[in-house]
Amino acid sequence: MNAGSNQVPEVTQPLLIEAKLADGQIELSLTIPPELIYFRGHFPGFAILPGVVQIEWVMGYSKRYFKLGDSTARTMQIKFRQLIRPGDRLQLTLTYQPAHSQIQFVYANAEGTLSSGRIGLEPL
After folding, report:
1. Structural domain contains residue 101
2. CA distance 29 to 74
3. Distance, CA of 97 to CA of 39 (rounded, Å)
4. Using one digit for the tens of pLDDT, what is the confidence trace for 2-52?
5. Is residue 13 part of a domain?
6. Tell me: the pLDDT tens digits for 90-103?
7. What are phi and psi of 75, to 5 degrees?
8. Distance of alpha carbon 94 from alpha carbon 21, whole angstroms
9. Where residue 28 sits, what CATH number does that domain have?
10. SS3 state of residue 101
């Protein structure tokens, strides 16, 4: 038996349930998998999604849906209000403002905003 045959693939992305794109804004319905690799050690017994991962997802989805190519973040502002935990279902809303070279984002659930902020992009 191959030693690597019982390895589980590493989960790095949320489960995308639905995407609605309209007029420079995208609304993504997501479920956060409990087996996400970013929960390992962050924190034992009380897993939370790190802020750097939230930013990474914002950039990844923005590049995908707004066709930003190889744009990189120049500046970032983020405000954490509630923790994102394994199994959470949430909405990620991204708004692209090309005139300001920035993306605004909000992670929210039925109770309200979990985190929000904006990312200034290097000009395309």
Report:
1. yes
2. 27
3. 32
4. 555 567 789 999 999 999 999 889 999 999 999 999 998 878 889 999 999
5. no
6. 999 999 999 999 99
7. -135, 155
8. 9
9. 3.10.129.10
10. coil
Query: pLDDT tens digits for 41-91?
Result: 878 889 999 999 999 999 999 999 998 888 899 999 999 999 999 999 999
Contacts 24+ apart (CB under 8 A), 107-111: 107/54, 109/82, 111/82
pTM score, two decimals?
0.89
The residue assigned the tokens 């979990």 is 114
Is 59 among the domain residues?
yes
Residue 66 in domain: yes
Query: 1 pLDDT exceeds 50?
Result: no
Distance from C-alpha of 6 to C-alpha of 43, rounded to nearest angstrom:
25
- Contact of 117 with 79, CB cutoff 8 Å: yes
Q: Which domain holds residue 63?
A: 22-32+40-121
**Alpha-helical runs (H) found in the chain:** 51-66
Domains identified in the chain, total number = 1
- Give the N- to C-terminal CA distance of the chain in Å, as an integer: 50
